[in-house]
Each structure stands twice: as C-alpha cells, then as structure tokens.
Amino acid sequence: MYTAEFDYKKASSLQDALSLLQQHPDAKLLAGGHSLIPAMKLRLAAPSLLIDISKVPELRGVRMEGNTLIIGAATTYHELETNDLVRKAAPLLTEVIPHIGDPMVRHRGTIGGSLSHADPAADLPAAMLALGAQMKIQGRSGSRVVDADQFFQGMFSTALGEGEILTEIHIPALSGRQAYEKFPHPASRYAVVGVAVVAGPEGVRAAVTGAGEHALRLSRLEQALAGKPLNAETIAAACQNLLSAEGLNHDLVASAEYRAHLVDVLAKRALLRLV
Amino acid sequence: MADKATVHITVNGQPHTSEVEPRLLLVHYLREHLGLTGTHVGCDTSQCGACTVHLDGQAVKSCTVFAVQADGSSVTTIEGIGAMGHLHPVQEGFWEMHGLQCGFCTPGMIMAAADLLNHNPNPSEEEIRHGLEGNYCRCTGYHNIVRAVQYAADKMSGKKSVGAAADD
Ligand SMILES: Cc1cc2nc3c(=O)[nH]c(=O)nc-3n(C[C@H](O)[C@H](O)[C@H](O)COP(=O)(O)OP(=O)(O)OC[C@H]3O[C@@H](n4cnc5c(N)ncnc54)[C@H](O)[C@@H]3O)c2cc1C
Ligand code: FES
Ligand code: FES
After folding, report:
1. Protein residue whose Cα sits closest to atom 2 of ligand 3
2. How does residue B158 score in pLDDT terms, banded at 50, 70 and 90?
3. Cα–Cα distance between A143 and A213 in angstroms, integer?
4. What is the per-residue pLDDT across A177-193, written as a single tens digit (0 to 9) for each?
5. What is the third-level CATH fold of B5-81?
6. Which of A155, A242, B70, B84 could form a disulfide bond with A213, CB atoms 3.0-4.6 angstroms apart?
7. Does the distance separating the beta carbons of B2 and A5 come in below 8 Å?
C-alpha cells in the first residue's frame, strides 16, 4: 500500500523541528512511525510534509535530575525496556513496555509517539497517570509542563496544541511499589483493559487504559484504600464497581459491562501483587 | 509532486546510493529497486512480520519504515544472513526441525529469531514464543518453529554439534 505523496525532512535539532512545524501547518511529526505510517497507508492521514524527529538529540535518552527520571520523547521502547535507570526509578515502565506490540514494534516505537497519539487502548498512558508523570511541551513561545491528569483529553486527543512538540516525560523516581495487569485484545494485543497501580507513602495511585475514551485515574479505588493497610481483605472490598459501564468502550471483543468487570478484576490482581 | 530524496543505504554489506520517493517503503526498496525478493509482504498492515529485516542490527517490519528513514543505515535481509553451504544457525534449525511448510513467513521468522538470539542467547520456550509474537505463521502451528530456534540456540552456544538434529 502506498501512502499519499509527501515531502520528508529530518530535523537536526528541536529548534529546527519547531520552525519546520511553524512554516508548514499541515506537516506531521514522525517519531517511530508505528501509528502514523499505518494510518497514512490507510489514507486516514495525508500530511504534506513529515518532519522526522527520531534523531533529534534533545529528544533522546534517559537521565536523572535530582529525584526525577527524565525521558526524551523520541526514546524508543526498546531503549527504555533495557535501561537500568528506568528499571531502578520506574520499574512499572520496565514491566509495561514488553506488553506493547512485539519486538519489532518496540525497536521503532517511541514513548513520546505513544503519548501524543493517545490511542484509547495504548498501554503507557495508564502507567503515566499511576506514576504521576508530567509532560514537558515545547512551542514557539516557550515551554510548559502539564500533569498526566491534564494531558489525556479524549480519544486521540491531548493537551498538545498546534505547532507544539512533546519533548520530555518527567517521572518522580520510585514513588512506590508498582504493578500492571493487562487483558490484551486477542488479535491486536492492544489493551482491552489495562490497570496500573503504584502504592507509595501517600497512598495508592491507580489508572486504567482501554476502558474509556482516554486513560483515566481510578479515583474511587484510590479513595476506598485511603488510610487503609493493603491486604487481601481491603483490596477485595475496594475493587468493586470501580467504573460504571455507562459510557465505556464496547466492541466485538468486549461489551462495556465486560470492560467494567475487567477493571475490577485487573485492579485486584495488580494490587494483590503489592501485598 | 514531492521531491525525490537521495539515500545511502548499505544492504547486506554492499553500499547503495538511490533516488527515492519519500513514500517508498523500505520493503519495496529492497524488493523492487534492489531485486531482493526474499523479504516478503504478507499483510502490509504492520501485523504479520513477513517483511522483517535488520536495520542497524535491530529487527524491524520493513513495511512500516520508509526508505528515507533508513538513510545512512545498514540493512541485513534474509539474503545476507547466511550463505549456501554456510547457513546461519537459525536457517539450519528451520531445515533440521521442519520449521516451515509453505515458507512464506520463514524469511521474517528467521530474521526475528536471529534478533531474539542476539538479545537472549539462551531463551526459554516461553521467551521464544513471546519474542516471535510479531510473526504470524498460517501453516506450522509454531511448535517446530520454536524447536528450530531452540536448535539454533544450542548450536550457537556450542551445545550441539554441526548437523545433529534432536531426536523428537
Ligand atoms: C503491530 C502493532 C502493534 C501495536 N501494539 C501496541 C500495544 O499493544 N500497545 C500500545 O500501546 N501500542 C501499540 N502499538 C502502537 C505503538 O506503540 C506506536 O509505536 C505508538 O502508538 C506511536 O509511537 P511512534 O513513535 O511510533 O509514533 P508515530 O507513529 O511516529 O507518531 C504518532 C503520532 O504522534 C505524533 N508525535 C510523535 N512524536 C511526537 C512528539 N514528540 N510530540 C508531538 N507529537 C508527536 C505524530 O505526529 C503522530 O501524529 C502497536 C503498533 C503496531 C504497528
Ligand atoms: S508485511 Fe510487514 S508486517 Fe506484514
Ligand atoms: S510456513 Fe506457511 S506461513 Fe509459515
């Protein structure tokens, strides 16, 4: 399958990418290409210009600053799943990433591409919410930092505005014990439902992907466990009717009611692993 | 009309300089521009892995990479992984353990399996199955593919002598 015609430019720096975006309003950024290229082949997207940001130095790599793990948006899944800093500071990511696609997808796909694309069934958005991550966004007029809670806004829709680039993901290091439980789609392996939990000194943070239009916090669960010890009884009591089926996603594989049921089951499984 | 781009890509050790349309997929560059038709197109929707090649040493689906993205890189295809009389251990494993029937998935399967063994020279059966999750086979039922990869792992770690197939 051939995509529509387009021009291609490899950005050499973040500034270069930003000014190309400014000059060409219907250009698209190309990171790993593993959501964008399939969409272009199906002619669901036909940008006039692709700006390849996969080699932009400011967008690559992993480092610690104080107690914060900082990940460049164009860092690939493979680089993250094999990185020791990530394993130490945010083991949830080391656990979640092998659930994404397959090794070939993980060699190309990037964390920033996944978060910017905001597929309602993507794995990483749930992890970002549970970890309390922040997204650094750069535009023409400077940069801003957005909490994961404000970043995901709808199906394939985020806080990113016209001409803006997600540059870094900031994650508080080792905020607590962490686990992810996923019920994969039998064919695509995307999440039908995926639940990420982090149990830290300030309580439990939990988030779900696949259930709704975008990943969201499981606030009912967090409140039910507030101030309580984590054990089999408290977890079983808390993991009931976490989301109402009304408004949840439904398709051939899973009804909204089944998805709501999966949220309870997967949240319980994930939390029991932390006891 | 989009401008053509000049790319420099080393394929199976041989440098090539080509003028390509930006929308040319790496798999079509390999098959149609270079005549390397060992790399197959199964689904063309990034699912099946028949088009798997190594890009700078990593397995990728060449139907989901534009040739322009591979500018400056080196690519290894099924044609470059072994040679007649000197098969790659994974190729030998597929031969010895009957890891193929129609053979359509085999080039991609072999490239993915070779990549898996580069990262993990001694994989468990579960790790082999997880590592080949992106490669579909419609014929074999996968069991002999797993045995072929186990054969190659044993051979590469010196546990198996040349040509000695396991007896099951
Ligand atoms: C076979 C297959 C299986 C998959 N399975 C899963 C799965 O199980 N779970 C899962 O979560 N995902 C899955 N994916 C999707 C995969 O994770 C993609 O890699 C990811 O969604 C997009 O990342 P990318 O780097 O490839 O982005 P691209 O495809 O390059 O870009 C995606 C979108 O984000 C924009 N963008 C990219 N980077 C930035 C940035 N820094 N700032 C602003 N905008 C940006 C692009 O313009 C584009 O609109 C699968 C994909 C395939 C092909
Ligand atoms: S042809 Fe590339 S994944 Fe199927
Ligand atoms: S041998 Fe026929 S598809 Fe695998």
Report:
1. B102
2. confident
3. 27
4. 999 999 999 988 999 99
5. Ubiquitin-like (UB roll) (3.10.20)
6. A155
7. yes
Residue A219 confidence (pLDDT) above 70: yes
Over the stretch A83-125, which tens digit does the pLDDT of each residue have?
A: 999 999 999 999 999 999 999 999 999 999 999 999 999 999 9
- Report ipTM for this prediction: 0.95
Convert A200-227 into a string of H (helix), E (strand) and C (coil).
ECCEEEEEEECCCCCCEECHHHHHHHCC
**b vs e for B89-126, b when ≥16 Cβ sit within 10 Å of the residue's Cβ?**
bbbbbbebbebbeeebbbbbbbbbbbbbbeeeeebeee
Interchain CB contact of B58 with A (< 8 Å): yes
Domain range for A108: 57-172
Mutate to test the pocket of ligand 2, among B51, B66, B77, B104 (most ligand atoms within 8 A of CB): B51
Query: Is-contact B134 A101, C-beta < 8 A?
Result: yes
| Residues A162, A64 within the same domain | yes
Which of the ligands is closest to the CA of residue B136? 3
Residue with tokens 């210009």: A49
Q: Would the pLDDT of B165 be above 90?
A: no
Q: What is the side-by-side order of every strand in the sheet holding A68-72? A: A62-65, A68-72, A165-172, A134-139, A142-147
- By C-alpha distance, the chain B residue nearest A105 is B60
B105 lines ligand 3 (CB under 6 A): yes
Question: Among A17, A36, A52, where does a domain finish?
Answer: A52
- Taking the Cβ of residue A107 and every Cβ of chain B, the question of whether any pair is shorter than 8 Å is answered with yes
The token duo for A108 is 């190309």
User: What confidence tier does B120 reach under pLDDT thresholds 50, 70, 90?
Assistant: very high
Predicted confidence at residue B3, as pLDDT, reads: 86
**Structure confidence at residue B167 as a pLDDT band (50, 70, 90):** very low
- pLDDT for residue A235 is more than 60: yes
* Whether the predicted pLDDT of B161 surpasses 90: no
CA separation for the pair B157, B166 (Å, rounded)? 15
Query: Is A148 in contact with A128 (CB distance < 8 Å)?
Result: yes
Check residue B1 and give its pLDDT: 57
**A257 in reach of chain B (CB within 8 A):** no
Q: A95 lies in a domain?
A: yes
At A256, list the tokens. 């909204």
Ligand 3 pocket check for B142: Cβ under 6 Å: no
Compute the distance from residue A232 Cα to the ligand 2 centre, in Å. Answer: 45
Q: Specify whether A153 is located in the same domain as A47.
A: no
* For testing contact with chain B, the best of A28, A37, A104, A105 (most B CBs within 10 A): A104
